[in-house]
Design a protein that fits this description.
The complex is a heterodimer of chains A (344) and B (461). By secondary structure, chain A is of the alpha/beta class. Chain A contains 13 helices and 16 strands. The longest helix of chain B is centred in the middle third of the chain and has 51 residues, at 218-268. In chain B, helix 1 packs antiparallel against helix 3 (155-202). The chains are: A alpha/beta (344), B alpha+beta (461). The interface between A and B is medium-sized, with 19 and 24 residues.
């Protein structure tokens, strides 16, 4: 556990002083973009003007390592822990590092987004396919995993080196999506093979791939976070978004109140806000654009025009996520992936 | 009924409620134990199943053990959605291959058997249940048991057993309440005959001593029977008293009328010589009246004592001696020889000394007044376990035909001498109340004997 110094390097801290004079403060350690969180924090402070919010964003593995180390050492870590790698929260809860979150608000969540009232999923993040609107002809837009495999097979001259996806060695979310692709579909092997043959562009983060798609260097992005992509599209980027019609994995960012939170009540209040109707609405409008029990935005390509959302395959927050953290399994999965990507 | 200090009804309901409560508690405890076993059985199967799923993926590759923990195994364990789950796979050398390195294994896993081992343990601050399955791996360079252990917190089990217990307890409580309602109804019904008896007694005229006619079950019939017997005794006593009063009044009226006539004659008689004769008769009548009154009072006393005075151990000899002494002054007017044969040592019987003395005295007086010419024998002896008291005179005695009548009140015999016919009746009553036998005898040698035979001392009256 020599990750603490690394954490210090990659940690961006933001201070939101209480607009109405500080009476209480909440410390949030997270692995979520500040741009997605800021509207939520501001709206929370509109409701609770006497609470100061200290928000810190780190890489998923770093923040997980820090939370684990603090739990093992029985040290205070934060009042709320938020990460897009919901498997990390599951592991921490399984190890007894979380406080039970008792709230009526939790009942409005779907069952798959809540484990033991300790690991709470608060957002709805589909894994989407993004394409450059100007450079990808309508006929080439892949509407399913099968379409993508077929496209890579049929038009290598166009798409070779111009498909982007997560480098799952670096990205926790990328790993989760790939892992559940493998569980979900028997075509994963072919997909992996196709990505390898097409010399896919591998990046750490959704943002980097999106930028390259915007700029036209990459034409199609696979398994990207729907919220970031929609944010870019809404900001005017020339990109289109597809919810694959065979199945669309859905991840929920997860939160937990650490067992040794300095002010668990403050953490509870912020979490209350995140899953409240108002918090969910703000998230849907300004942060994540997709939400529980809401049809996808109109300008997203989806099966049935988004009316029937049975293609969603949520990644259940629960003990099965522990498999994604199994050392042996992880090593083998990464080895397979690296081999397919020509890295092995 | 409710205003009584201790109600039979509530006492019955109380003890039955206690029995029901104890029974229900025991059943609930039994249900809890059963539910825990049932919950453990059910979830242990899941646990073992998950361990097998993991164990099946164990392979060896180039001397390295490989485990591919299947998502389905963890999904099996997370069916309850409420429990934490742990797993651990260790190789033949005991080294962890994957999972939680410090997850405790069931002790039974050391046995040389492939049967799954299950046990309770504590891990990360919670009670957990663990199961291990073993698989023998024999491949290139690796030989030995690979142990797959999975663990699960107890929350779903506890919830299931609590749910089962609660449902069973509800049934038990419902059953108990039904039983209690049934009991309350039945007890009320069972006690109803008592209320009938009560109503029959309350509604009764105080002078009505005829038996109660109440329909009653066997248990209450006994009580009704006892009440009726008591009323019978009361009624008998009442009749005795009434008859006694009637008889007494009648008996007093005759000598009073005679006395009044003599006084009238005396008042109208101018001659002193004749006056003397009347005065002598008035004296005679007055004496007779005095004796009658004494006897009536004595009889009343004997009747009263027979029922009211507890018996005691008394010396029959002393009583008889005293009684004869009491009776003798009366016999002084005539020349009668009195011979007493009384055992020197005490002759102890059970009885009331006052009544006994009265009885003996009356018999002796009777003999002196109506029987004896010149001799009177009084004898007290032991007879087997009991005792005998005999009063014998040399007079003509009572004819056999009158023996039965002589025991009744106001028998005076054929000789209409001064005195009343109460003496033998008193004696007969006293004998009866002492369980003694009073008999008459006319010996061939002449005279008349009255004999009392008292029962043995320990024969309870």
């Amino acid at each position: 556990m020599v990750l603490m110094p690394a954490l210090a390097q990659a940690r961006d801290a933001y201070h939101f002083p209480a607009p109405g004079g500080e009476q209480q403060s909440v410390a949030i350690e997270a692995s979520v973009d500040i741009s997605a969180m800021e509207p939520l924090i501001r709206d929370f402070q509109a409701l609770e003007p006497t609470i100061t919010v200290d928000f810190a964003d780190s890489l998923t593995n770093d923040v997980f390592a820090a939370a684990s180390a603090a739990c093992d050492a029985e040290m205070t870590f934060a009042d709320l822990f938020i990460t897009s790698s919901s498997n990390h929260v599951v592991k921490l809860v399984n190890d007894g590092c979380a406080l039970r979150y008792e709230s009526n608000a939790v009942r409005s969540l779907p069952e798959w987004a809540n484990w033991r009232n300790e690991a709470i999923g608060f957002s709805f993040e589909p894994a989407v396919i993004v394409y450059n609107k100007n450079l990808v002809p309508e006929a080439d837009i892949p509407r399913s995993h099968g379409d993508l495999i077929e496209l890579m097979r049929a038009k290598p001259e166009i798409y070779d080196g111009r498909i982007g996806t997560y480098d799952i060695d670096q990205s926790g979310i990328g790993f989760l999506f790939a892992f559940f692709d493998a569980e979900q579909s028997s075509t994963f092997g072919r997909l992996l093979e196709g990505l390898g043959r097409a010399r896919a562009v591998l990046r750490c983060c959704t943002g980097e791939i999106l930028t390259e798609i915007e700029q036209g260097r990459v034409l199609i992005g696979y398994n990207l976070l729907g919220s970031y992509a929609y944010g870019r599209m809404a900001a005017g980027a020339p990109i289109g978004i597809v919810l694959p019609s065979d199945y669309t994995l859905v991840l929920s960012r997860a939160a937990m109140i650490p067992a040794r939170a300095a002010d668990p009540e403050a953490g509870r209040m912020f979490l209350d806000y995140l899953i409240s109707a108002r918090g969910q609405r703000v998230a849907a409008e300004q942060s994540f654009f997709f939400a529980f029990d809401r049809p996808p935005p109109k300008d997203v390509v989806s099966a049935h025009g988004g009316e029937d959302t049975s293609f969603y395959r949520p990644i259940t927050i629960g003990p099965s996520l522990l498999a994604t953290l199994d050392r042996a399994k992880r090593e083998r999965f990464l080895a397979e992936w690296d081999a397919a990507m020509g890295r092995g | 009924m409710s205003e009584r200090r201790t109600s039979l009804y509530w006492r019955l309901i109380g003890s039955l409620s206690i029995a029901l409560t104890l029974g229900s508690t025991m059943l609930a405890i039994a249900a809890y134990n059963y539910a825990q076993t049932a919950a453990d059985d059910a979830y242990d199967r899941l646990l073992i199943g998950a361990a097998r799923q993991i164990a099946e993926t164990i392979t060896a590759d180039n001397g390295r053990l490989i485990v591919d923990v299947p998502l389905s195994a963890l999904e099996t364990l997370s069916i309850s959605r409420s429990d934490r789950v742990y797993y651990r796979v260790t190789g033949p050398d005991g080294a962890a291959i994957t999972g939680y390195d410090d997850l405790p294994m069931p002790p039974a896993v050391d046995r040389p058997s492939e049967a799954p081992a299950v046990s309770d343990a504590r891990f990360k601050g919670s009670d957990i249940r663990t199961a291990s399955v073993k698989r023998y791996v024999s491949e290139a360079g690796i030989n030995g048991w690979v142990v797959t252990t999975v663990g699960q917190t107890r929350e779903a089990r506890n919830a299931l057993s609590a749910d089962l217990t609660w449902k069973a307890a509800l049934l038990v409580i419902a059953m108990s309440l039904i039983a209690l309602a049934g009991i309350m109804f039945t007890v009320r019904r069972a006690l109803k005959p008592l209320l009938h008896v009560e109503a029959a007694l309350i509604g009764r005229d105080p002078n009505n001593l005829t038996p109660l006619n109440v329909e009653a079950p066997a248990e209450i019939a006994e009580l009704v029977d006892v009440i009726n017997r008591f009323m019978q005794r009361l009624s008998d006593r009442f009749n005795v008293m009434q008859k006694y009063i009637a008889d007494s009044a009648h008996q007093l009226r005759t000598p009073l009328t005679a006395l009044a006539a003599q006084v009238e004659l005396l008042a109208n008689e101018p001659k002193p010589a004749a006056q003397k004769g009347y005065i002598a008769r008035v004296r005679e009548r007055t004496a007779e009246l005095g004796r009658l009154t004494n006897q009536l009072l004595s009889h009343a006393m004997v009747i009263h004592r027979a029922q009211a005075v507890a018996s005691d151990q008394v010396d029959l000899g002393a009583i008889v001696r005293q009684a004869v002494a009491d009776a003798i002054p009366v016999s002084l007017g005539r020349d009668i020889a009195v011979r007493q044969e009384i055992a020197p040592e005490p002759v102890i019987i059970r009885g009331d000394a006052v009544s006994l003395r009265e009885a003996i005295r009356n018999v002796v007086e009777n003999a002196v007044h109506h029987g004896a010419d010149e001799g009177l024998w009084v004898r007290v002896t032991r007879s087997g376990d009991g005792a005998l008291a005999e009063i014998h005179d040399d007079g003509p005695g009572i004819p056999e035909a009158d023996w039965q009548q002589a025991r009744e009140r106001f028998y005076r015999g054929r000789t209409s001498a001064i005195g009343s016919g109460l003496g033998l009746a008193i004696a007969a009553d006293v004998a009866q109340s002492h369980n003694a036998e009073m008999s008459f005898e006319r010996p061939t040698t002449g005279g008349f004997t009255v004999r009392f035979r008292f029962p043995a001392l320990d024969a309870r009256a």
